[in-house]
Specification:
The model has no long low-confidence stretch (mean pLDDT 96). The protein contains 14 helices and 11 strands. By secondary structure, the protein is an alpha/beta fold. Strands 1-7-6-5-4-2-3 form a 7-stranded mixed β-sheet, with helices on both faces. Strands 8-9-11-10 form a 4-stranded antiparallel β-sheet, with helices on one face. It is 37% helix and 15% strand. It has 2 domains: 227 residues, Aspartate Aminotransferase, domain 2; 90 residues, Alpha-Beta Complex (Aspartate Aminotransferase, domain 1). Bound molecules: pyridoxal-5'-phosphate. Pyridoxal-5'-phosphate binds next to α6. The site of pyridoxal-5'-phosphate (PLP) has 13 residues, from α6.
Length: 358
């Protein structure tokens, strides 16, 4: 994992994609075949009598999400040709795996402890999951990564800031991998808005093998709408469009997301509040006897090592306070993952922990 950067030369998307995907004749929907305005639409077996709802939900939505992608394009500073939208990032993860990995033959690499969906999606698709654990301190182990790869490794999944550890990965390490691995490098930036670290979106021109995942579920507060983004090369974006279910983002989600994207000032303000509250929550937790360690976080949660995770978890559940028990996760022994809440929610949590009898 020390090669100089020659990604454009070593990366060949056609070699990474499955042959059946390259050859695929995509489904052509009614909305693909006729675009433009007409007065009588009798092409899609929709219900012309309307829906029981006040809005125009009887028609299939735009399969290319053109307006929404243009709006996202302006906010992110990336052309729409590089933006793919999934039904949550989870759909993007699944489609990337299915585009590249031959079931029973190919493999992908993850760096635990990390987001569980990469491995679950791989297993659903019968793809071997190779693991190169993070080092203590939760940074990448480039040597272990190098040793785990072979000619069938199609994708490396990196998560920065990482879930559940909260830290950003060392940028130089990520670039080393981008510059030397001939497959796709997916950098999952679900929590990037809470980080000081810059997005890897800026590196897309330099690394044709880079895929940046972002989502509207976290900083944008739209987890229920299910909108995730895979931002990558125009070539790969085209492939993802060909293999996605035609109407993967519903009309209501597209409309509501567009309204929300107009409120960027509000979202940025709340993001600043969450970051500030994260620091206050960390300080308050430090003073609690059953808290042993608070790991530095660039996300909207804190990974916290406690004296007795199982008992503390159940104690909090008994009080109606739910955190995530990560104590059986490798390198997270003894840890709970706590989402930063409102000041009021955080106060309730802190007061409960102060009263916990060890
Ligand atoms: C929450 C989260 C996501 C977001 O997933 P969506 O399907 O877009 O809601 C993606 N990656 C990581 C690491 C996450 O923690």
């Amino acid at each position: 994992m020390t090669n100089p950067k020659t990604p454009a030369k070593i990366f060949d998307l056609d070699r990474i994609l499955r042959k059946n995907i390259l050859d695929l004749v995509p489904y052509s929907s009614a909305r693909d075949e006729f675009q433009g305005m007409a007065s009588v639409y009798l092409d899609a077996n929709e219900n012309s009598y309307g829906s029981p709802l006040p809005s125009n939900y009887n028609r299939y939505p735009d399969p290319a999400q053109t307006q929404l992608r243009e709006k996202i394009s302006r906010i992110k500073g990336v052309p729409p040709e590089r933006i793919f939208l999934g039904n949550g990032s989870d759909e993007c993860i699944d489609l990337l795996i299915r585009a590249c990995c031959i079931p029973g033959t190919d493999n992908l690499l993850v760096c635990p402890p990390t987001y569980g969906m990469y491995a679950v999606c791989a297993h659903i698709n019968d793809i071997e999951v190779r693991k190169a654990s993070l080092r203590p301190g939760f940074q990448l182990d480039l040597e272990a990564i190098g040793k785990s790869l072979d000619g069938h490794t199609k994708i490396i999944f990196l998560c920065s800031p990482n879930n559940p550890t909260g830290n950003s990965l060392d940028r130089q390490d990520v670039e080393t991998i981008l510059g030397s691995f001939p497959g796709l490098v997916v950098v999952d930036e679900a929590y990037i808005n809470f980080a000081r670290q810059k997005s890897f979106i800026q590196e897309l021109e330099e690394y044709p093998n880079l895929v940046v995942l972002q989502t509207l579920s976290k900083a944008w507060g739209l987890a229920a709408l299910r909108i995730g983004m895979a931002i990558s090369s125009p070539q790969l974006t085209k492939i993802l469009f060909r293999i996605k279910p035609p109407y993967n983002i519903g009309q209501a989600s597209q409309e509501l997301a567009m309204q929300a994207l107009d409120q960027i000032n509000l979202v940025n303000e709340r993001t600043r509040m969450i970051v500030q509250e994260r620091e206050l929550l960390g300080k308050a937790l430090e003073a609690i006897p059953s808290v042993l360690k608070i790991f530095p976080s660039e996300a909207n949660f804190l990974l916290v090592r406690v004296t007795d995770p199982g008992r503390i978890y159940r104690y909090l559940v008994g009080l109606g306070i739910i955190v995530r028990d990560r104590s059986r996760v490798e390198l997270c022994e003894g840890c709970l993952r706590i989402t930063v809440g409102t000041p009021q929610e955080n106060r309730v949590l802190i007061e409960a922990l102060q009263k916990f009898q060890a």
